[in-house]
Amino acid sequence: MTMVDEATNFHGDVPLPEPKPHAVAPATADETNRLRARLRPIACVRFDDVLFHRGTSAPTLASMQTFAMLGEYLRRWGGALLSLFGHDDRSSKDEAYVLGARRAKAVRAVLLANTAAWLDAARNPVFTDHWGDVRVGEYMMDALYAHDIPLPRETPTPGSPAFAGLANSYLHLLRDGDGRGPPLETLPPSRFLSTGGDTPRPPSYPACCTQAGRTDA
C-alpha cells in the first residue's frame, strides 16, 4: 500500500498483506455459502485545495501533475477499482458537502474523459461554485495558449456553445500532461466502486482524493 505524505502526496510502499483462506460453514445441497470480496487499499492520491479554483470545482492546471501521478498508479495496478471522495472546509456544512461532491465529480470527469460533466457544473452554479465568476474560461484559454493548442477567438462564457470546445481541450490537456509521460488512461464507469448515489451526502475526506483498491475473492 502506498502511504500518503502531505508534502508530496505520496510516500513509499508498504507490502500488501497475504490473503487469508476463507472459512465457511458446512452446507447441504439446498444451501449455499456467500463470500464477500475483501477490499485491499493499495494507493491514495490526494488532490489538495490549491488544485481547484478557489471555492469552485474547476481544476487548475497544477492538477496536471497529480493526474499524471494517478495515471502512474493506474498503470502499475491494472484493474484496480477506484473510489472518489470530496471535501471542503466551509462554515456551512451544506456548502461543504455540495462543493466536495462536485469536486469529486470533476475529477471523475477527467478520468472518464467526460466533458459533459464539466459543462453541467459550469452551467449550473451552486453556492460559490460559479465557473463564470472566477473566470475559469480565461484561465483555460491561458493554459491552452501556453501549450500551443488552438483557441477560440474570444473567451466564451460557460453558457455559450464555444465553451464546450474550450472545456474539452482543457480537459484533455490535463489528461495528456506535459508530454513527458503517457496520457492518462480513459477509464470505464465499471472501474469505480460506487457513484455515491446510494448515500445522501458524500463522505468527508481530507481534500479530494482518489483511492485505488482491489478485491480478493
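^ that was protein a. below is b, sequence first then the C-alpha cells
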Amino acid sequence: MELRRSRLAPAAILLAAALASPGPLQADEAGPEAQGVKRERIGRSVEGRPIRATRIGDPGSRRTAVVFGCIHGDECAGHAVVRRLVRERSPANLALWIVKDLNPDGERRGTRQNAHGVDLNRNFPRGWRSSAKGSRFYSGRRPLSEPESRAAVELIKRVDPGVTIWYHQPLALIYESKGADPRLLRRYARAVDLPAQRLGKLPGTATGWQNHRDPGTSAFVVELAGGSLSSRAAKRHARAALDVAVRRSPSRQAAPTTAGALLTSAARCLSSTTSC
C-alpha cells in the first residue's frame, strides 16, 4: 500500500502537468515562431555588421541541422542554396538553422578573410596553429580570436546539430571530413553529382573542431564550383542538404514535454513495480 501511495503522488503531478499543457497551436492561432520560422542575430562582425540565423521547421524537434552559406567573403555561391532552403518545405521532424553569411565584412570587401585579415576557417580550436599575419590563411592571434568564429561556436553549442554543412568554393567536390559519416557525405555527393574526396588535414577548421567535439555528428564541407550557382543547382543542393539532415540520428536527447508524453509517463509510473 505504501509503495502504491509513493507512486501516486508523482504520477498525479505528471497527470496534472499533462492536462495543463496546451495542445499544439493551430495554423491560424500560431505566430511566426510557432509556425516554424524564427530569425535572430547570433553575433556581430569585427566591423559591427549583424550575423543572423534563421530557423525553419519544427522548433521542438530533436533532429537539428545547421547550414552556413558563406564563411569566406570571396566564396559566397552558397547564398543561392540557403535562399532556396528558406523557400523549400522543411520536413516536419527537423529544426534547420541557416546562417547565410558568417563573414559579412569579408563579403563586403570581396576577401577570404574577415576585417582583421583572419581566415575564419583557421581560427577554430581543434588543431589551431599560429600563422603569419598578412598571409592568405592567417589563423588569428589565438583560437576563436574573432567574433564571427565565436558566433558560430556559440550557435553550434546551443542547438547541438546532428548535421552541419559549410559551403565553400571552388573545388566542386564534397570534402570527406574526418569524423563525419562517410555514407552521409557520399549520399549528398550522389544527389548533386559531385565527387566525395578526402583532402589533406588542415589546422583550425570548423569541421575539424566540430567533429572532434561531438562524436557521432557530421560536419562537412561542400565545395561548390567557381562562379555563381544556377537556380537548378541551388535546388539540388538544398534538397540534398534536407535529405542528409533528416537521415542523421538526432544529436540531442530532448526531454518529453508534450501532453501525450506526460500522460504516457504518468501511466508508466502507475504501472511500475518500483517507485517513480
